[in-house]
Amino acid sequence: MNNSKLAEEELTRYSRQIMIPNWNVEGQLRLKNAKVTIVGVGGLGCPVALYLTAAGVGRITLIDKEKIELSNLNRQILHWSMDIGKFKTFSAIEKLSKLNPLIKFESYEREIEKENIRELIKGSNVVVDCLDNWKTRFILNEACVSERIPLVHAGVHSWYGQITTIMPGKGPCLRCILPKTPKEEEKFPILGVTAGVLGLLEALEAIKIIVGLGNPLVGRILFFDGETSSFQEAKVQRRKGCPVCGGVS
Predict the structure, then answer these.
(1) 72, 76, 100, 116 - which has most CB atoms within 10 Å?
(2) What confidence category does residue 240 fall into, taking pLDDT thresholds of 50, 70 and 90?
(3) With 80 as the cut, is the pLDDT of residue 216 above it?
(4) Are 197 and 159 in contact, with CB atoms under 8 Å apart?
(5) Residue 136 contacts residue 112 (beta carbons within 8 Å)
């Protein structure tokens, strides 16, 4: 695949987004030459992967060590009944490669740890946090800040969710926003549509960063309330003396 131009098939496949003002072929080439790492292939990761694949992100890496269970299927839309027992990464790539065979996929079925995370995200243009626990999120946050890689974070619970984008050196990191690690919940309520809404917003943030259009949620958190179908925004700032990003400029 020649990454300096778009083939006729690509011009046709992506024609409707190429029409967006200031997107043009140049914007599509940025997507084609980009690498996005999606950490977690569950309720958030599935819609993120689906829409980034459709949009034409050239390389997509999926990281998830878990296998599919029946209770996943109310929200993890890339996994179907016949996939129960498979690795989530394998199930997702099977569907995504049929949606868009032009994309290069890779996967890692392993636990995320401080010792391996930097190697796993190396070379990414954007990392998308689709995790369901705070311990791993903070490991990911620290690695992305250290590697100067933009990180899109979202979390969901029941009807509710939040999303923010972390641009190392330009806005607060996750530890700035949450100096104390929230209490973990092994299992928590979640409506599939809630995860879908936040996952689509994460995909949108990643695309904006890569193409260079729009205003990503840097220094802002967007909160979603599914019960009232409403959004609220809060501004957040870098925290002086943050142990993760305090020395990053």
Answers:
(1) 76
(2) very high
(3) yes
(4) no
(5) yes
